[in-house]
Amino acid sequence: MTELEKDIMNIISIAGDSKGKAFEALKKVKDMDFEGAKSLLEESRKLDLEAHKIQTKLITNEMDPEKENTPISLLMVHAQDHYMTSQLARDLVETLVEVFKYQGGK
């Protein structure tokens, strides 16, 4: 496996972990455990930042004129899809936590 393939697989794996944490947070909301949800969302955010660093490295390498042009592969597109959905899941769950926290406080 090449270094590029390892980086791409890491993005997929990390994004999956991030999305999992976001949905765990949503389950905490069902139990009115808003602090637990907030903690899981923070873990999700940290994972997304880790994936973002890898993504930035790959983009930077692709833009470097000194380096060989990186082919766009279906695997990379797949990784980007996972990364974007993990961010969307976290953002949506963060909003839902706030909505339910507000509703529960009444």
Please tell me about this protein's structure.
By secondary structure, the chain is mainly α. Helices cover 84% and strands 0% of the residues. The chain has helices at 3-30, 34-63, 74-104. The longest helix has 31 residues, at 74-104. It is elongated. The N and C termini lie far apart (55 Å). The mean pLDDT is 92.
What are its keywords?
106 residues; mainly alpha; 3 helices; 84% helix; elongated
Layout of helices and strands:
Blueprint: H1 3-30, H2 34-63, H3 74-104
Quaternary structure classification? single chain
The beta-strand count equals: 0
Main sheet summary? none
Q: What is the count of helical runs?
A: 3
Distance between the termini: 55 Å
Low-confidence stretches: none
Average pLDDT across residues?
92
As a percent range, the share of helical residues equals: over 70%
Shape summary: elongated
List SSEs in N-to-C order: HHH
Beta-strand content: under 5%
Report the radius of gyration as a whole number of Å: 17 Å
SS class: mainly alpha
Organism: Clostridium tertium
Cofactor: Mg(2+)
GO molecular function, one term: transferase activity
Keywords: Magnesium, Metal-binding, Phosphotransferase system, Sugar transport, Transferase, Transport
